[in-house]
Design brief:
Elements: H1 2-33, H2 44-60, H3 62-81, H4 88-112
Family: Belongs to the ATPase g subunit family.
Keywords: ATP synthesis, CF(0), Hydrogen ion transport, Ion transport, Membrane, Mitochondrion, Transport
GO biological process, one term: proton motive force-driven ATP synthesis
Length: about 120
């Protein structure tokens, strides 16, 4: 156990040194590669303007997303009406989807309690 901890510390130290050496060059390279997305001048007002643009653009796309939701819901309703024609694969996919939703719910509960499993602080 102690040797694994030492190996982990060694690898973390190596990663830290690598980031220390090459982190700034990677940062500069990343900014240079994506400079077409950078807004000039970088002010608070510009950020507020972009945030409002994003909000209202997403709000404007809401009707098409709403329409897609209702189409998918109609598809699920038709599958439920014809459940005798349902394949095992489709039922398996539905079960996995339900399991994934439950897992995300559990993860959210754990995060909401401060990463404790019992709800008590240890």
């Amino acid at each position: 156990m102690a040797s694994k901890l030492q190996q982990l510390q060694s690898k973390a130290c190596q990663a830290s040194q690598f980031i220390g050496k090459h982190g700034s060059s990677y940062y500069k390279q990343l900014l240079e590669k994506n400079k077409q997305y950078i807004q000039e001048p970088p002010t608070v007002e510009k950020c507020d303007h972009l945030a409002k643009q994003l909000f209202y653009t997403r709000l404007a796309s809401s009707p098409s997303r709403n329409e897609s939701f209702w189409k998918e819901l109609d598809h699920v309703k038709s599958l439920w009406k014809n459940k005798q024609d349902l394949k095992v694969e489709d039922a398996g996919i539905a079960a996995l989807f339900g399991l994934e939703c439950f897992a995300w719910y559990c993860a959210g509960e754990i995060v909401g309690r401060g990463f404790t499993f019992t709800g008590y602080y240890v």
